[in-house]
Amino acid sequence: MKVLHRTEPIRDDDATLARALESASIPTLLVALVHVTGDPSWLRGEVRPRAAIMGEVQGFLPEEEQARVRRQALEALRAYRDGGCKLPPPPSPETIREMMSFMVGEHVPEEYVPMMLEEMELDGEDVRGLHWEKALPAEVRGRTHVLVIGAGMSGLLAAIRLAEAGIPYTVIEKNPAVGGTWYENRYPGCRVDIANHFYCYSFEPNHEWSEYFSQRPELFAYFERCAERYAVRPQIRFETEVVSARFDAASSCWKVRVRTKSGAEETLEANAIVSAVGQLNRPRIPEIPGRATFAGPAFHSAAWEPQHDLRGKRVAVIGTGASAFQLVPELAKSVDRLLVFQRSPAWMAPNPVYHAAVSDGMKWLLRHVPFYARWYRFLLFWPGSDGLLPSLVIDPNWPHPERSINALNEEQRRVFTAYLEQQVQRNPELLAKVIPSYPPFGKRMLQDNGSWLAALQRANVELVTDGIREIRSDAIVCEDGSRREVDAIVYATGFHADRFLWPMQIVGRDGRDLGELWGDEPRAYLGITVPGFPNLFCLYGPATNLAHAGSIIFHSECQVRYVLGCLKALLERGRATMECRQEVCDSFNAKLDATLERMVWSHPGMHNWYKNSKGRVVTTSPWRLVDYWRWTRAPDLGDYHLA
Ligand code: NAP
Known about the structure:
Layout: H1 14-21, H2 26-37, H3 63-82, H4 93-104, H5 113-120, H6 138-142, E1 146-149, H7 153-165, E2 169-172, H8 181-184, H9 216-229, E3 236-237, E4 240-248, E5 253-260, E6 265-270, E7 272-275, E8 298-300, E9 314-318, H10 322-331, E10 337-341, E11 348-350, H11 360-368, H12 372-381, H13 407-423, H14 428-434, E12 446-448, H15 451-456, E13 461-464, E14 468-471, E15 475-478, E16 483-485, E17 488-491, E18 505-507, H16 514-518, E19 536-538, H17 552-573, E20 578-580, H18 582-597, H19 625-631, E21 640-642
Parallel strand pairs: 1-2, 1-7, 2-3, 4-18, 7-19, 8-17, 9-10, 9-17, 10-13, 11-12
Antiparallel strand pairs: 4-5, 5-6, 14-15, 15-16, 20-21
Helix pairs in contact: 1-3, 1-11, 2-3, 2-4, 2-12, 7-17
Bound molecules: NADP nicotinamide-adenine-dinucleotide phosphate.
Residues 191-193, 280, 286, 318-324, 326, 341, 343-344, 444, 468, 492-494, 607, 609 line the site of NADP nicotinamide-adenine-dinucleotide phosphate.
């Protein structure tokens, strides 16, 4: 697909340009100017970004250097405008490599260059879709149908790619709208916590995000727009749920039982299934004794019940993960009393722009300065790439294995602890409650701009750390016998993340039941394919969650590309099915286990939703992004039985 990264011509006056430049990320501007002027000397002067870390988009350049670049940029953009917005020939591949390393203040190794180029699409080529060797014959097209389960971020992506490839498909979506998690999660304060100019499809940038980490309605609107723009909506059956899918060896097809909202059931037939049901889709409410006796409103954060007016009420929030972290500061503003029940605290990383608005100047630059938006994406991606991963590997000789896992992790602990201390200086009791005992990164890190601890220090908020013994009709009773009366309970207690594809019943070859096979021990090859289940492809499957870096959209783009590669192989070779070889899946999983065992998420000192009931990490990937990207560029057909 050719992607038109449209840049609007500059027609504005100098004052507008100068104002917009005030908002510029200088490293991004410098490399964009190489495109605008054709002159690589922007990279070879005195001004050199020192480093790129998350949340720092100025490369640690001193103010006066930034000001100097702005002045020079004004000249260059004025000349570009007055010359009719014509671009010189693009920079050479060598210059582009130089631009990458220059921009982030460190050498970008060669193995990352193609991945980053693909992500940026500087040449306007989107290579992650399917590229046929020869056009798909109408007769083959006529007998092919792919069924996608879910129209969230990854299901929509699959639909967009299938449509682009001309492969007939249907998407089954249980909700009345697209968006998945961004449709369902409506709790106050819900927003993305991956930088939004990166958390969007590589081929569908959005220059209009109103915040760097936008709120839920904007995310939902983005996916709605994508469904329209790529014309996939007519192929989506809303308010329909997949109940079961059974592989029929005689026809080499999947028979998929679906149920509509009215309860009517029917069976659909598909050559292949793409499961895009997400890992965080089925809310989990713990079995606390007496829970059913509670008389007031009680609901899960992901199933918000807006009909209850919580203003002026006594509300309990159970859980202190990413959802509670966003919800509590908002809720605290309007309720009479907020009780936050914490089983274990979370580590958080300071991010001053977490709630910040994107200025008009920044939006102007994204829209008007050629390649600025593309390089800005790179600047967000690079520090969120693989740099952190080595610090998350357990050093078996580390002398303080309870509090940290290696020397770097100990340093992270020191920095994050200082960040907590600085916010809770006058309240040692609270401080003791919010410093985690386990190593940083053991659970999902939270982005923070101070709003969490500010909320916990409000007069109407109490952080309760005693375990919950039971729930009564009007109160929560703790292990120490203390009783707190509440009018409403919000369970921010997470999801059934270790029960993949549940509660659907998936029956593969020879009657194998996926739910029985997996339990909470899911095993897939690359997180995508499963021996015994021909033509079943998972997106965001086992061990594909990202906890060290990246955006799950990047990972989905890798997986969808791989799946389309599999379909291409089947259709071009006139084969009906492909099934992962058992030994390939086993050896991949042996390597996976050995790698995960040494990662911080396996540390026994905490609960997290990455582990199953036996403490084995099943949701999260330990791989470098660049490796997973390479493995998923195209299927190795030697890994499969083709029939
Ligand atoms: P979560 O991280 O699994 O947190 C669940 C919380 O409930 C934890 O604090 C847990 O305590 C607590 N809990 C569970 N059972 C309990 C019980 N019986 N008694 C007391 N406390 C209990 O769930 P989440 O906050 O919904 O987040 C899940 C994931 O969704 C995140 O990690 C993230 O990947 C995604 N998410 C993303 C965003 C975003 O990008 N904006 C926002 C929200 C969620 P323990 O910690 O002790 O287990």
